[in-house]
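STRUCTURE:
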């Protein structure tokens, strides 16, 4: 079962901005004084861009604009997701930098997530994705007589949930509509609330795929909030074959899957898996989830000293990025079992996932992890399996942070010590425009981080 974030009927993408004098300065700067409308004609899975334009916020109160508004939520979320996944994958050692020609640069010091290095990448788009979805929910509830059972409201709530999850997993702190800095958990709490409401509304609307997406999303958020009973309860209701995706198109660069385009040799060769866990693991196992290739005619990345081993997870600019899956639900159940001390059950769950994957080397199921593992070994298998399953989906940075903060065993699976922080800081643009923040604001430092520049 594979579901995308775009609507069944499609429509032009419409983006709203805050209304009223109390709208946050940051959002006014980002989105402008009027609603941004990206006119997109949807046909099946293909999109043709027409003339972009601007519309007053009140035009989005027309019911004819509601479906395009939901499509706009989807596009904002997809844009934010590729930015976060692209920037943080180097930090989490999913790949190493291979070049700096592409417009959106990786950090100048490999993996160092400072304000100067990261800029506003992920923040502007993430905040927009959150606000557009949440404001859409508000608008629909004010104007739709059947809002409590509307598929549009359910879709908007699901988008709001995933946008908040993205911010909560990737950023060091939260800022809501120009307010003060708070814990990153605030975003996760917002996501949990949106997913809970989405389950209720989608259920009344008869949209089972949205119920499952919200339930799987809430399970993942509850992991971040350390609500393991709640996470397991939600995960149990998600079937193995369920997938809910962020969709990409070939119409504009911002809607490309940049994890393919920035490394497709057209002309960019921005990153490589050389020297990462993936390089040796795929060569040994043929696990297609982390497949990579090479080309004798193009042996190096843009940087001539970096062998170009390119990931094969994404094969075109329109390949989707998964937001949640039933397989992640099984990983949640495995981690919960480990936290209860049920090592054998945890490894059994992991091996069931591996048995469903066939090796690129011989077509046989992947070899299982040893069933008699120690607790520490089982934790290592779990952390590796999550990294393999969620490879290049923008999720690894959040996993590494929560494991470093709660002291989970086998925290040395990826060498991140003395290099980086495990979250994106609030950017200078926000500090300079938000009256509730100071330009010298210092970000939290992860317990694992011991290098210089921790508060920069």
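SEQUENCE:
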């Amino acid at each position: 079962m594979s579901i995308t974030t775009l609507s069944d009927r499609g429509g032009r993408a419409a983006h709203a901005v805050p209304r009223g004098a109390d709208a946050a300065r940051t959002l006014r700067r980002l989105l402008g004084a009027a609603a941004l409308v990206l006119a997109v004609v949807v046909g099946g899975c293909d999109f043709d861009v027409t003339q972009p334009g601007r519309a007053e916020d009140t035009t989005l109160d027309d019911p004819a604009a509601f479906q395009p508004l939901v499509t706009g939520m989807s596009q904002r979320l997809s844009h934010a997701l590729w930015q976060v996944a692209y920037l943080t994958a180097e930090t989490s050692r999913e790949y190493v930098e291979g070049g700096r020609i592409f417009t959106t640069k990786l950090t100048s010091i490999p993996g160092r997530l400072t304000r100067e290095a990261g800029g506003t990448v992920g923040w502007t788009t993430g905040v927009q994705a959150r606000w557009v979805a949440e404001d859409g929910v508000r608008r629909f509830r004010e104007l739709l007589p059947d809002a409590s059972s509307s598929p549009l409201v359910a879709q908007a709530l699901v988008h709001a949930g995933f946008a908040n999850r993205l911010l909560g997993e990737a950023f060091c702190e939260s800022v809501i509509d120009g307010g003060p800095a708070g814990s990153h958990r605030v975003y996760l709490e917002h996501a949990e609330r949106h997913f809970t409401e989405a389950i209720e509304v989608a259920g009344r609307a008869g949209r089972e795929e949205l119920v499952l997406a919200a339930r799987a999303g809430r399970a993942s958020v509850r992991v971040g909030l350390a609500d393991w009973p709640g996470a397991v309860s939600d995960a149990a209701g998600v079937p193995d074959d369920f997938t809910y995706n962020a969709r990409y198109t070939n119409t504009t660069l911002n809607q490309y899957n940049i994890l393919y385009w920035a490394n497709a040799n057209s002309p960019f060769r921005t990153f490589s898996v050389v020297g990462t866990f993936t390089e040796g693991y795929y060569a040994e196992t043929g696990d297609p989830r982390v497949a990579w290739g090479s080309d004798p005619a193009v042996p190096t990345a843009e940087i001539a000293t970096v062998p170009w081993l390119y990931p094969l997870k994404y094969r075109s600019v329109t390949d989707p990025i998964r937001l949640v899956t039933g397989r992640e639900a099984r990983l949640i159940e495995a981690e919960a079992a480990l936290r209860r001390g049920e090592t054998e059950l945890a490894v059994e769950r992991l091996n069931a996932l591996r048995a469903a994957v066939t090796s690129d080397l011989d077509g046989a199921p992947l070899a299982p992890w040893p069933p008699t593992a120690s607790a520490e070994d089982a934790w290592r298998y779990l952390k590796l399996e999550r990294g393999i399953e969620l490879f290049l989906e923008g999720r690894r940075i959040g996993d590494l942070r929560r494991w470093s903060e709660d002291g989970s065993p086998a925290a040395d699976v990826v060498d991140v010590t003395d290099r980086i922080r495990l979250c994106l800081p609030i950017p200078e643009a926000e500090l300079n425009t938000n009256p509730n923040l100071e330009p010298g604001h210092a970000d939290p430092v992860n317990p694992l981080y011991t290098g210089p520049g921790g508060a920069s």
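REMARK: The chain has two domains: 2-81+106-249+327-431, 253-311.
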